[in-house]
């Protein structure tokens, strides 16, 4: 137990946090550690250990863990409590099929409402992605790029569902780039998406997005197939 506490301290930092910031700080540190692979799938996160580590009560820890569970980064297991979720679940390909439905609808709703500033912001994320080589940052920028094109969709529940799925993909994207030895992603699809959005060509943008997400689904399918063989 002492060894695990020491490991958590090394991964998350052991300094105490102000009570009024505790939930958000703990959530952010755990989220970053999971996405960056410093907390591996299957690692159990005990409320009391984390509360002691950060010098807070169990309440903000509990809330932080609930938020991460809602983002599919943690899952609750019998006799273990909250554990870091598998990198990719067996339903990942089905999840991507759902993402196609959700994200194309958000894009349809959002494009007519996007203005020049929205388009400029989306293009700025592409420029950053062209030069970024840190895997965690690539994942974050990829999420921000997609949300910048969906953000004007009036359906807020739809946007929350999409952002949760993008959080999950952010983690896999980091792993995929690392395992493949890739420094960055090609931005051709992203540029095509922004150009179509700028022209208000809704169905063209939707077609590009569908192809983009389906390519990612194939990548996940191949990964899962390899895991089963190994």
Automatic annotation (TrEMBL):
It holds the Pfam family GntR. Residues 20-87 form the HTH gntR-type domain. CDD domains: WHTH_GntR. The keyword Transmembrane helix does not apply. One of its GO terms (molecular function) is DNA-binding transcription factor activity. Keywords: DNA-binding, Transcription, Transcription regulation. The keyword Cytoplasm does not apply. InterPro entries: GntR_C, TF_FadR/GntR_C, Tscrpt_reg_HTH_GntR, WH-like_DNA-bd_sf, WH_DNA-bd_sf. Transmembrane segments: none annotated. This is GntR family transcriptional regulator. It comes from Pseudomonas laurentiana. The lineage of its organism: Bacteria, Pseudomonadati, Pseudomonadota, Gammaproteobacteria, Pseudomonadales.
